[in-house]
Amino acid sequence: MNIGTGTFTGRNGYQLNGTFKLTRDSSATVQFETSEDFFFGNNSGGGTPAPGFAFFAGDPTGLPNKTVGAVANQTDFLRIADQAVAVSGKQTGSVPDTISLAEFDTVFLWCYSVPFVLGVGRIVSGVQDGN
Is residue 88 situated within a structural domain? Predict the structure, then answer.
């Protein structure tokens, strides 16, 4: 069952391209999947250490890192690299059932090593989830 979809845009000098979808599988687990053309990196061909996806209500860009970081730590569900490398291709992961998706309308990529927003994607089709 489709829960939501969206398109990524980079922030703070990082390139973040591609789309994503959130679906509920037959076991009621929420799955996250990026498009095959997903790309994350910077202008020098690298990335950042410990980038990971999380959820937010609204666009976290420009908000204090302490505020955004607290939400990122609570809604962290998929780390995509351990080193500062560019990442491309489909990324997939399960969203823990402890995260109430109805509270959020944005997926964002957060740097867990040096805290800051790397990119965002608004959930455009809306989350229709009782969880």
Answer: yes
